[in-house]
Amino acid sequence: METIKVLELFAGLGGFHIAVNNQKDANIQVVKSFEINVNAVKTYQENFGYDVISNRNILSLSTEELIRQNVNAIFMSPPCQPFTRLGKKLDVNDDRCNAFHHVLKLLPRTPNIQYLLIENVYGFESSKMRENMLEILQSSGFYTIEFLLSPTDFGVPNSRLRYYLLARKNKKFTFCKHDPPSILKEFTYCTCGGISLHEQSSICSNCQREVNTKISSLVQQNTGNMKQSFLVNTSKLHSYLDEKTDIEQYAVPDKILLRYGNILDLRTFQDSSSCCFTKGYTHLVEGSGSVLVCNRSVTIEEAYKAYNEFKETNSEAALNSLRKLKIRYFTPKEVERLMCFPDNYIWPKDLSDKTKYKLLGNSVNVHVVTLLVALLIHS
Ligand SMILES: C[S@@+](CC[C@H](N)C(=O)[O-])C[C@H]1O[C@@H](n2cnc3c(N)ncnc32)[C@H](O)[C@@H]1O
Fold it and tell me: How far is the CA of 168 from the centre of ligand 1 (A)?
């Protein structure tokens, strides 16, 4: 069996490292990783030991060192700020792309690298950086396949639409017969190996049949010899949450309730979805993640009716109506579960909740990347 030795770059909390360790029937391990953020490095060390991770800037990695590392795979999530929906979208002109560029420029000179897995935000798929990346990969002999996927595609009740690229040197992906492949989304696969190329069409361009295969089935078909299951057991939020959480400790503050009550993304224990948790969770409101209504004896509609009635004239009455709902933030542990980190993931003792949210908000959904690692090495 081939041995795959992974270099994990922009390692953060080590989401890729967990995905690699989740590959039960493969000879694959992370042998080295690089990360610049001290808190991420400390957390990584707690979970994966002190030897693997280097607290180093990736810009200092040379061709010679990359060859010396004796790795044949690179897994990485380069900074996403140059491409985010709410950012300035400076793309290749943003200095935060420099380290990503640097790694790509090393590839033509490092023939030992045979496998790549790259993650970035939704928005990256239409960037100049992606164009540059594909040009370099194709001229270096890589076959590539790209995805836009969310954990919700696999039954996990949390949205996190992300761009993923799998690349293999000299080894085609057998499940995709199209060249060049388009970016693959849910419901675009056909069991014949074709895909539906047009977003609006559900007809397979290869066999002309209706396409309805889910990505989870695709993974199952292409990794059939693996023993692990790729489907999560439940899609309800309650199985990711702690009913006994101290509501006061995580309560959404009054000033946020009063001012931003109408833009909070409210969820209940019975819901089967939640918004993407970003690094700004708890200090930004809009689009940074969901909050939880803990009091089930008051209806949300009733509380909001009173809130909107009194908001401009009687702030105490408006506030009281929302207070009754007992709205709290998801705890870091709950966010961690929704990101599919394993139960035994540990944090350094002195790390604040704010830092945990920040690191988790930058991280990857472990379930999704576990599936993609499986596709990369087995299909
Ligand atoms: C999107 S996050 C990575 C998430 C990671 N895959 C995880 O599972 O948590 C990007 C990470 O790259 C790190 N980073 C950014 N620029 C870097 C550089 N030049 N050298 C090393 N690490 C860098 C950031 O500190 C951040 O933790």
Answer: 23
- Whether the ω angle into residue 180 lies within 30 degrees of 0, i.e. cis, is yes
164 and 250 within one domain = no
DSSP 165-184: EEEEET---TT---SS--EE
Q: Of ligand 1's atoms, which has the minimum distance to the CA of residue 59?
A: 19
190 in catalytic set: no
Residue span of the structural domain in which 311 resides: 243-330
What are the tens digits of pLDDT across the range 234-272? 678 999 999 899 999 999 999 999 999 999 999 999 999
Closest by alpha carbon to 154, among 371, 376, 375, 374? Answer: 371
Q: Give the list of residues 6+ apart from residue 182 with CB closer than 8 angstroms, or none.
A: 146, 195, 197
CB 342 within 8 A of CB 18: yes
> Which one of the listed residues 80, 176, 276, 340 is annotated catalytic?
80
| Domain assignment of residue 94, yes or no | yes
Together in a domain, 33 and 104? yes
